[in-house]
């Protein structure tokens, strides 16, 4: 099984090489021995777009060369671009570029195209992948869980242990969760003098008025956040010290970049989000969020 970086890099290369053939997520999934559903989820998580839509856009973009630089008729261009019917190609072309292929050929209108996606060395994290940050608006949400005081010098080992214990033993007692398969690990209330912070192992709930005794409720107010996205070839339980340290090193690099327009407020609160349903036995996905403030 390929590492996430190599898998997605190969998928992008395959799409470009076979763009005029019948390339699709099913063929790619079979080639790399993962389910088609997980191929689609992995691609969307990594690149924030559907793989089918990306392939369609790249195929239509590739057809522009024949349309504008040869005398081939529209039917032959359609067939050479993987379309069985001329009208199907024309409809897809108009949806993509806002103009029919015939009119574009006549007018030479400038159109916006979908460039090929690329991975960069800065995305590689021990052969796994880290994307971001994206600046996103996170709506207000509520969590219920167990509160832990985690020493700073033990956070990369103690926090995962607390998360696993919560997931296997305590989560079942929360009855009003919105999705029992999404884990939220939220860090807040940093006590710099004492050298620890509060870490809440939790799930999202409808409200914090009906949580079990001994559990902690917390309201995350709506705000702009920086989001980092991680893909690793391992189980969620196997996010170890080495991976965590490298991830936080990358996040700190962004925080210390004076050229960025936003500053991280991770001294106040931040959280990781894991959708357990996205794991298929090969690749895990995790998102990390912290509020941001505009510098200028």
Overall description:
- The chain has 296 residues and is of the alpha+beta class.
- It has helices spanning 4-17, 25-31, 36-47, 51-69, 74-80, 86-97, 101-107, 155-170, 241-255; strands spanning 124-125, 128-138, 141-151, 182-191, 196-205, 216-220, 223-232, 262-264, 269-275, 284-294.
- Strands 1, 2, 3, 4, 5, 6, 7, 8, 9 and 10 form a 10-stranded antiparallel sheet that branches.
- The chain is elongated, with a radius of gyration of 23 Å.
- Helix 2 crosses helix 3 (36-47) and helix 5 crosses helix 6 (86-97).
- Strand 1 and strand 2 (128-138) form a beta hairpin.
- The mean pLDDT is 92.
- It folds into 2 domains: 4-107, Arc Repressor Mutant, subunit A, CATH 1.10.10.60; 128-294, Regulatory factor, effector binding domain (Multidrug-efflux Transporter 1 Regulator Bmrr, Chain A, Alpha-Beta Barrel), CATH 3.20.80.10.
- It contains 9 helices and 10 strands.
């Amino acid at each position: 099984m390929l590492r996430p970086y190599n898998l997605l890099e190969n998928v992008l290369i395959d799409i470009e090489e076979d763009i005029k053939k019948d390339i699709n997520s099913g063929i790619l999934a079979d080639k790399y021995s993962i389910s088609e559903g997980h191929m689609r989820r992995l691609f969307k998580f990594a690149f924030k777009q559907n793989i089918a839509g990306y392939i369609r856009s790249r195929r239509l973009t590739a057809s522009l060369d024949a349309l504008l630089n040869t005398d081939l008729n529209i039917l032959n261009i359609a067939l050479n671009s993987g379309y069985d019917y001329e009208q199907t190609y024309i409809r897809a072309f108009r949806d993509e570029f806002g103009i029919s292929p015939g009119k574009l050929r006549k007018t030479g209108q400038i159109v916006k195209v979908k460039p090929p996606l690329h991975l960069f060395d800065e995305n590689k994290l021990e052969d796994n992948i880290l994307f971001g940050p994206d600046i996103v608006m996170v709506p207000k949400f509520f969590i219920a869980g167990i509160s832990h005081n985690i020493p700073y010098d033990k956070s990369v080992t103690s926090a995962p242990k607390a998360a696993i214990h919560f997931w296997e033993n305590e989560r079942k007692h929360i009855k009003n969760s919105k999705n029992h398969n999404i884990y939220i690990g939220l860090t807040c209330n940093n006590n710099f003098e004492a050298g620890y912070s509060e870490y809440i192992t939790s799930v999202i709930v409808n409200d914090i008025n009906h949580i079990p005794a001994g559990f902690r409720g917390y309201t995350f107010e709506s705000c702009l956040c920086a989001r980092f996205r991680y893909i690793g070839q391992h189980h969620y339980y196997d996010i170890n010290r080495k991976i965590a340290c490298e991830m936080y090193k990358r996040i700190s690099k962004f925080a210390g970049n004076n050229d960025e327009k936003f500053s991280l407020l991770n001294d106040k609160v931040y959280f990781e989000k894991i959708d357990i349903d996205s794991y298929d036995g090969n690749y895990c996905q995790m998102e990390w969020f912290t509020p941001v403030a505009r510098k200028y």
